[in-house]
Amino acid sequence: MELFYYGILVFVFSIFNAPILALIITTLEMKNAQSPNMAFRLMNIINVCLLGQGLGHLLTFPCLIFPNLLKTFETVVRIIGGIMNTLWICDLSMVTLLGVSRVLIFSNTISIRKSDRIIRFLLILLLSWIFILLIYSILFRNMMMYPPQWAYDFDVPFCDLFDTLEISLSFPCILISFLSYLTIAYLIFVSKNLKSSVASRRNEIAILFQSALVTAYISVMIFVWHPALFTMFQFIDMNDQTNQAILNFMWIVHCYVNPCMLLVFNKSIRGDCVRLLRTGKIDQPPRAAATSIVTLS
Question: Membrane-crossing residues (predicted)?
Answer without folding.
Answer: 6-25, 45-67, 79-100, 121-140, 167-189, 205-225, 245-265
